[in-house]
Amino acid sequence: MGIQVTVVGVGLIGGSLCKAFKRVMPEVQLTGVDCSEVIDYALKEAIIDTGYLSEQLETVCEKADFIFIATPPKIALKLLPIIAKNCKPKCIVTDVCSIKNDLMQCARENFADSSGVFIGGHPMAGTEKPGIESSDPYLFENAIYVLTPNGFESQKAVKKLAGLIEKTGAYILLLSADEHDKIAAGVSHLPQMLALTLMLYIAEKNNENDIYLKMAAGGFRDMTRIASSPFAIWQDICDGNLSKILAEIDGFSAALANTRRLLVEGALETSFAESAHSRLAIPKDSRGFMTPNFDLSVDVQDHSGVIAKIANVLADAQINIRDIEVLKVREDEGGTLRLSFESEKARKQAKSILQKEGHVCHNR
pTM for the whole thing? Predict the structure, then answer.
């Protein structure tokens, strides 16, 4: 029998973990814990092997080799004492919450006398769409997955958990809980606040003149994509990491004031150059890839099945598309696709094939 993995909370992240484990380790026995509606869906779609309701958690804990708590932080805090008390010896318990300090403190208190071990976790991956229906077996591919050991567990346990997670295609990064929360406030929580504020600001302008949103193009759409994230996900994050988020907002406000000053002085050229240089240092793009993409723009006609045809043509040539995005759509005329490849060689081959198929292609 394969290892027993239990996922408590089979939503976007929990469901994606289940799908990812099934994809790379079919022998793993996956158990989901959630409400009846979610469990019924997960069983019907073969996302999990067995399912239990939340009130059956104590019984489920006794069988698991690994337990992933994939719930909002406040719920995770309530579940930790139950899991610590009922998990079997040497069971490795982890979470996927995006704030760590409070959770790690709770874990230290509850796992001090537990036969299992707790290691904090946070996959730097996700979408603005919640729920098991949005789960994706490739969500963690090439994404950073942070682990925050509490210092009491063995190195063997950390390596064992890291090895399991790495099978999903993720890259492990070890951080302290405090360092994680400070960095997450800057690169994850602050962007959410900025997207929210920018969207509301322009929406108010649009109430006065509805041309605003009609003119909103790629830059605005890219910056506000996460503005549609549900508050239910962000409420616990904002409450649990409040001081660090406020510090980042204050710091950004000062930086924005400085940009305003440079704008007035006509001295933004250096800022643009430094910004462009710093942007290149980001080890992954907004789609979660650790290694650089080689992008190709492809003009397509407005015909049914055109995207599938392109994908099939490249698949026949053994060329893997890492990512695909519809950039522009012109009704009854067609649009532009962005295809991403893992190497310049693959992009060059794809470009040649698609040009022979009659498509206009440009390197991006």
Answer: 0.73
